[in-house]
């Protein structure tokens, strides 16, 4: 059994197609308004001037970040949950037990990745469990299996970090020191640091 | 002004008012006992004491409306080791149980006055720790508008401001009921003289306390807003924008200054020699204005929720 699973996203080649998002929604049959995996589009830009030529050139950027739960080392959702429904289990996967959850939505308030999501019909929280059922059968999680660009991967986080570095501090993601996400990002060539504040999320209604 | 978190607005306000009232009653009791016999002091404070329990129970009941799945209610005490929400609920229930035990002893005159006072002191301390724990729930590192020292200070200020003015209002209402009953039964009004003197000095103290706590609120509010303005993160900027939208902040300030400042000062002046009716109107309207101001303030507190990240 794995020690701690995590995701690796090669942001350079992500086209923002949202196949991962749709595969997740389909696999788990998620209701309207509940989207465990979301693809954030982050855009910004500035002008550079060339005094010699008397010209202005636009520098614009847009890049995508596919995010679900990062099964953090310091999961803030687990820390604030009053019922212990939110827990870190085998393989380091953070999941929620609907039989314990009281639906107070405190985890939803706290998680900076919007991973725990409220199901209004069931009255309880739901979240990504890294497709534990698929893993048990030896298959990839639905999102990873669906990625046509093959930029979304999962695996033992120590291996992913050894191979692809240890960056998760890319805007608009929060400072990784808060929850220590098990997430590795190979940054887009225009990726901005976490606190740069130079761009905006252009699809907030999808997040 | 959207009121999506109405159950939590009511829960936090009513529990804080209950704790504040209990503490204010305790202070009145301790100060009044220096000059008056216990029986007289009890006549003034008991009616207000019995009003606190139902408010506290109503607040706990309203908080259930916040839950999506109340069936699992008993699980909320599972995570006392790390969740402030678990700790808040435990302390809130402890305050309610201790307060109920004290009120019952006071009503039936069980135990000695000294033991009862000790129970009341423990209840007051548990109540204040409960309010402090309530504030800790909102100190979430990913929510800049909440994760600041102003949250516990503002919660405690609300506790004392609403508490002392609620006790003032309860005193004047109970006094007018008592006077009407005494007149109907043909009792001598002189018998009430001691209670009346105590009522007046209590109202003076309540007026001064309200002004002092209002001053704290007026210092904390700009500190909070400037902290958000200087934070620079998109979440803090969104919170500041939510707080300044629609003139609610101004309404809250005007009502708080009118109720907790102008009317409280007037209450302090009028308590010395003013007619009972004047005191009833002043203490009553000061409480109502501050209650509305605090409600607007608390709705705005929940409106200022904005999280960092995505």
UniProtKB/TrEMBL annotation, chain B:
GO CC terms in record: dimethyl sulfoxide reductase complex; plasma membrane
Tree of life domain: Bacteria
Transmembrane domains' residue ranges: 6-28, 48-69, 89-107, 119-141, 153-175, 206-229, 249-271, 278-297
A Pfam family per the record: DmsC
GO BP field: anaerobic electron transport chain
A GO term for molecular function: dimethyl sulfoxide reductase activity
Keywords: Membrane, Transmembrane, Transmembrane helix
Name under which the protein is recorded: Dimethyl sulfoxide reductase subunit C
UniProt source species: Cellulomonas pakistanensis
Organism lineage string: Bacteria, Bacillati, Actinomycetota, Actinomycetes, Micrococcales
